[in-house]
Structure formats: structure tokens, C-alpha cells
Amino acid sequence: MSTPLPAGRYGGRARPRPSRRTMAVLGVLVVLAGLGVAYLGYRNLGSPTISGRVVSYRPLAPDRLAVRFTVTRAHPDRAARCVLRGRAGNGVEVGLTEYPVPAGPQDTTLSVDLTTTRPLAAADVYSCRYTE
To answer: What pairing do the DSSP bridges indicate for beta strands 122-130 and 80-87?
Structure first.
């Protein structure tokens, strides 16, 4: 003999489990979403496809510097923009300019005059990115 359970004490009946087909479809969707996130992460955070480096710089005036820099890119058919900055002897940023890099050869060397707020000790390419 069994006694009926008190109503409301143990909750309702268990919900039916999803079918195997539903679980398989959900599993495939989760894997595809993970692959998509991994691809985007690699594309945005992986090895850079464009980089810049200063080749030389020379003072033109106490507050101006001529900077030659080279941009190396994986997609030379795309235009880019590079940010160059000047730093004082104590490391403080004293000048900043954004310079367009037209589509062209894989390694492109350009010159730009960098105006600064104080005399500077060094210049560097802060970043480069594609514009298209």
C-alpha cells in the first residue's frame, strides 16, 4: 500500500527531457558560436596584419621633428592611418599626429613633420590600422 504524497510539498512533476535531436542541434549551435568567437578574437587580437616603426628622425626646430617611418602590411591594397607620437626625455607625450598611408607596396616609407609642445627626445609609431 502506498500513501499519496501531500500536494504542493515536493513540487510539480518533472518536465520531460528534450529529445536527442534537440540536444544535438543545441550542441552544434554552441560549437559554431564558440568557433565564431574564436575567429573574431584571433582576427582582432591575433598577430597584427599591419605595423609601423620609426626609421629615423631629426629636429627641424625646438618644437618640430621630421620623422621617417615604415609601414609593413599584409594587405598593401588597403589604405591605412598611423598615429605617431613624440616623447620628452622623461617619457611624457609632447606631440601626436595621425597620418594617412595610401595603398601601395607592402613596405611603405613615409615622412611627416611632428609638432610638439616641448622639446622632445624620441618619436615612435603608436599604432597603425586599416581605414577600409
So the answer is: antiparallel
